[in-house]
Structure formats: structure tokens, C-alpha cells
Amino acid sequence: MMKRYIDYSIVYAVLALVGGVFYREFTKINDYAVWTTLSVVHTHYFILGMMFFLILGLVSKNVNLKINRAVVFYNVGLNLAAIMLVVRGIVQVLDLNVVSAFISGVLGIGHTILGVSLILILLDIKKACIK
What we know:
The protein has 131 residues and is an all-alpha fold. Helices cover 85% and strands 0% of the residues. The chain is built from four helices and no strands. The protein is elongated, with a radius of gyration of 17 Å.
């Protein structure tokens, strides 16, 4: 399990770097200097992706974790949220007339899945530590 979590960590580090470069270059190309949600994609992937799975990998080295289903939901929630942050950011930069309520709703669903799965993972860690 530890290897899988470290692999996830590496993938999210790459996604964070890609997100940061996209934010910088996309806003520069479009001469956009105002805050946009593109700026937080980098942070979401670094902290909630790379750092979370790096720590989970280290924890799993010392504790026998069985949290496959919650990890799948965590990945779905994180990526759904990040994709919608990118979509909202592109809409902001290009000043498109798009229904932002839909984007906000899907982004909220992604964050909700992420939050619930995070709690499930923490409860699984607690259960594994008590045994």
C-alpha cells in the first residue's frame, strides 16, 4: 500500500506543477492580472494531493490500513474539485457568459466527496491504530 500512496503523491506533485504553469502562462497570454480560481489549483494538488498521500504512505508503513474505497472517493473528489476550479478559472479569465451556478454546484460536490472521504480515511486510520 505504501508504494501506491507514494505513486499517488508523485502524480499529484506533477499535476500541481502543471496547474501552476498553466495558471501563470494562461493569465499572462490573456493579460489577466485579477485573482482567479486557477491560482488555487496548484495549492489544492500540492496539499490535498501530494502532501496528503505522502503522509498517508508514511502512516501506512507503520499501520495496517485497509481504506481502498475511501481513497478512490478521495481521488474522485479531489480531481472533480480541481477540474471545476480550472473550468471556473478559464471562464473568469476569458470573461465568458456561462452559468456559474452549475460550476459552483459541481465544485461543491467535489469538495463534499473530498471532505466525507477524508473523514472516512481518518476513521480507518484510527481503527487501525486501536487494534
